[in-house]
User: What shape does this take?
Amino acid sequence: MIEYLLSAMILGLLLHGIHRKVIARVQGRPGPPIWQELLHTLKFLFKETWIPKTASQGLYVGVVALALAIWSAALILLLTGGSLLLLFALYLIHKIIEHGTGLSSGSQYSKFGAIRSVISAASELPLLASVALLYLFTGSLMISDIEAYQVINGPLLIPAFPAAIALYMVILSKIHYGPFSIIEAKELVSGYWTEHFGVWRGLLNAAFGLKTFVLLYTFVMVFIGPIGLPLTLLAILILMITLSFVCAVTPMLSPYDSVSIQTVTTGLIAIYIIYLGVFA
Amino acid sequence: MKRLHIQLIAILSGIILILSSIGAYLGAISYAISALATIIIFPAFIISIGLLLSAGLKDGDIPFMGY
Assistant: This one.
């Protein structure tokens, strides 16, 4: 199982590198090589590491361990075809990681990031709408059942398109340099993880690589279905590139606009769910 | 923490992770137990490896915590 985790982590970091490269090329810059995020993570692992005096030591280190644990659990859950609700729960725990990372160090920049993380809890609303709509179509929240449904009825991407848009927005809100990335905005230096450096930063980077891979893999499994490993990886890559395009051409929104857009999207999908549930 | 302790955690957790993977493949232990062991031990393994990499070879104590 460790082989899956390490592979997913490396692939996730490569996807981060591709993300940066695509953004740079769209903006007319050469950009870093695609393995830059891997090197970046390794570089941090070799840096001198300690815990700031103002930090809560347990929380400061604990969030790193928790980040690695929950995204490992999420990947294993996906591989075993477990429940989407459990995946949703793990995604919510990630919010605790964001709060914890921001609040643990005592730095004002990271604290502002943590506060914005509370505001960006609105990013969970589209996920809820997506899960509800998927249940309406498939009658199950088990990923294995959703895959089996798609083998018989074809990909859910077209019939459940609003749910796909909602999950796409969720992934967009968790990707670096995105329009909803208000918790790591440059006016807050690096936002909630400004004070995590050295090994802690490297491992958080690795955990977030795993997170990116898991979220993209979820999208492919839930909306395209079982298509074999090479095509799944290709679909993940295409999905990542589309996200990078969106990030490249969209400015970072203000916290208010970010929450408004996510809430309005959820509202529209909720209306669609009610329409399907009552009239269709 | 002393380098020796970190090394011990890294080696032990690495062995458990490999054994749980092999055990699950061979059917010696259930997939759920293997998954649970991996989820709990994987962070300890990765963090201890990271701390070992970042530790200076000249000093006895790694890393300098609680500054």
Remarks:
- Chain A has one domain: 2-279.
- The CA atoms of residues 51 and 57 of chain A lie 7 Å apart.
- Residues 2-279 of chain A form one domain.
- Chain A touches chain B through 29 residues (CB under 8 Å).
